[in-house]
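ERR on first pass: missing label on line 2. Operator R.T. fixed the label and resubmitted. Corrected input:
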Amino acid sequence: MANTGVLTSQAQDFPGWYQDVLAKAELADNGPVRGTMVIRPYGYAIWERMQAELDSRIKAAGVANAYFPLLIPESYLQREAVHVEGFSPELAVVTHGGGKQLEEPVVVRPTSETIIHSFFAKWIQSYRDLPMLLNQWCNVVRWEMRPRLFLRTTEFLWQEGHTAHATESDARQFALHVLHEIYEDFMLNVLAIPVLTGSKTESERFPGAITTWTCEAMMRDGKALQMCTSHELGQNFARAFDITYLSRSGTVEHVWQTSWGAATRLVGALVMAHGDDAGLRLPPKLAPVQIVVLLVRDKDGAGETARNLVAELRDKGLRVELDARTDTSFGRRVVDWELKGVPLRIEVGPRDLKARTVVLCRRDTTTKTSVPLGEVSARVDESLAAAQGALLEEATEFLRRRTVEVDGLADAERAAHDGFAVVRASVLEDGGEAKLNEAGVSVRCLQGPEEGLAPSNDGVNNELVAVVGRAY
Amino acid sequence: MANTGVLTSQAQDFPGWYQDVLAKAELADNGPVRGTMVIRPYGYAIWERMQAELDSRIKAAGVANAYFPLLIPESYLQREAVHVEGFSPELAVVTHGGGKQLEEPVVVRPTSETIIHSFFAKWIQSYRDLPMLLNQWCNVVRWEMRPRLFLRTTEFLWQEGHTAHATESDARQFALHVLHEIYEDFMLNVLAIPVLTGSKTESERFPGAITTWTCEAMMRDGKALQMCTSHELGQNFARAFDITYLSRSGTVEHVWQTSWGAATRLVGALVMAHGDDAGLRLPPKLAPVQIVVLLVRDKDGAGETARNLVAELRDKGLRVELDARTDTSFGRRVVDWELKGVPLRIEVGPRDLKARTVVLCRRDTTTKTSVPLGEVSARVDESLAAAQGALLEEATEFLRRRTVEVDGLADAERAAHDGFAVVRASVLEDGGEAKLNEAGVSVRCLQGPEEGLAPSNDGVNNELVAVVGRAY
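pass 2 clean. output:
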């Protein structure tokens, strides 16, 4: 492409490329308080599209949205021992409010299990109240020592689902339903990012969970990114918050719970899973702008043709923008739209129009095709579908190529420098996992023989494999 | 209605009725930190519908959504003198983060002018960057001494718009565009709540604004509720944050700004503007559930008929729920749906089905009509449109009846006990406004002769009238 040199190249400096593309595609900026982030309109439009896609899947699973307070009494967090130990070092604490020192300090939520469960205890009385399935879209704060835009920020936006069930099996099934039907489906079919699913080792588990399920993706530098998690909480919080129900048979039982979340980190994942040296490459199903109609020169009716085309494509329900900034150079505008990763560009210029054609340019492949005006509508549909498929295929092929099966710890560590290593989980025993961690490699997930899922949560056994890699 | 006695009556104790209906319709609960609120699924569904309607109007006005950090350095607020003075007593202050005392305390945003304007200063360089039109949906915290669910809460959800323009006139026009085309249109045509628009007196202005425009509505107890505000900020913040642009003629100029917001308080307004002694009455355009199909008894094919009806109405794009809880008494279910204010109830029972009819019940009028099955779809459209119109008409008539023109301060104070008093604005001079305030009455807005808008912002003049009332 003509725009080589606009960005630091990925091969040369991947983290530098990432910073560069966030700035030049105007996705985000650092906030004044260390680790905080400003999400600029284009970055936020990507997040809004993610929200819409996730939200419809969450609602289809029977989950209702609600909203719980940002501020939580410090004492709430202390009720579940493992939970408070996990989160204490990351808390932001409000000590003053309304001009006075507070009697009890309150924390800015790092996650909402504690406050939501205190209401579950009020609202759940009988088996008729179960399952209780809630979700909230909100901001959370976890003080971040090594911040990185979208990937690790002191404040981030997310959805957090919280559910209560009558039995352990109901809770497990729901946690897995969320993992596959909400998250994996969204990542595969909208983000066009293949993921490995599995469970976390004990050391990587959510504080307070009995099992943490995860979707792990591979970025274009071969490193792993945890895309979301879905936790089985067992009865740990039910006991800490005394959430009980009267069963059908008249006994009083503690509920079984889950929680699960996906965050603005996914915007970073999208950038690093598909982006190239010219900028973002957005999958059409996710892209806030799917097509830009670029008016080359406003001459000989080109302006009217471009505007009509925009109207026609919008009528089909596509997200289309017109670029009529003919006072800015053609080359610069092309570079801009490539930076922003818009999947399809239609160039409308007086020269092509003499032959009643326009030029279709796919961002993912950078192929250009001359298309008769009357065929644009049909060709656009084909091109968008093809681009969606091609991005997934490319990412899937990349993941396959960079994932190797190895035999022992030393080979796993070596292989993890380029991608993922799959190794028998038994090598993690007797300090094996700690040894990997010391080398900057971590267990991304454990997978059982069936569908990549651990068959039980009794810990590591011979049937399990561990996927290891370097992680963001 | 049969359900008299479910709620405290409005006539007897309006605040008690309000608390009662929020609890029994399951809209909200108090949070553990004083003044905070849990928005339950039904309350949140109402807010989501408000967000969708406002958001589409905001985007139609050319405004893009973005997101700015929750945490703001204390020093940012101090840059605009009037602003910090107005907000200091309400701030929540974070003094500890990541296990350590912070070098500079940070505040939880009470509103985001300061942090957003610090980025405007970076992003705005030339007249080509103007107008800059941004909005964010977020939570804010203002420590509340006299909290009341939805109306005054320590944390609330809102949208806050922030814009920068090249000229004073552009900024004013935009502030008024927001007031009328975004807010007033939404309130009138979706919420079915008539509002009075006008400007605030100096003492009621937003801290840092040169003019604050407002929509004021009347609740069913005759009290006023401020529904939203739209501020002209002049160049106050532009000077404090040094937001300048290079003009077309090459001079460096400060921008002119606006900010505007509407909050979860609107849920409270909706409850108090339309509710009656049986519960909420939601206007169909806003209602999360527009129609409930209530299966009376699952016998003689009634269940199948009900399910088919739900599918048919959903296919038309209506928001429909099926109530098939035939193990709960019919009466109790009717009370529930009336509490929740669902505009239309369709009762499907074996007895009516013998004559191939169902019963349509309008929540607003409580009228019941027997309708042949084949006519349901058409009658539903009519009934929803009629209910939307009737609620607006009733509220408009109520506002008209309770608004009186009076001559002097004493009469204004008296009249404000039942509703609004309209009085020449000149009576506010020389301590007149303070006298009203001492009597618990405040100036809700100033209106000029044209379309209820103050013609200039030079303060009070003889052409202006003041609308006074008791306020939430």
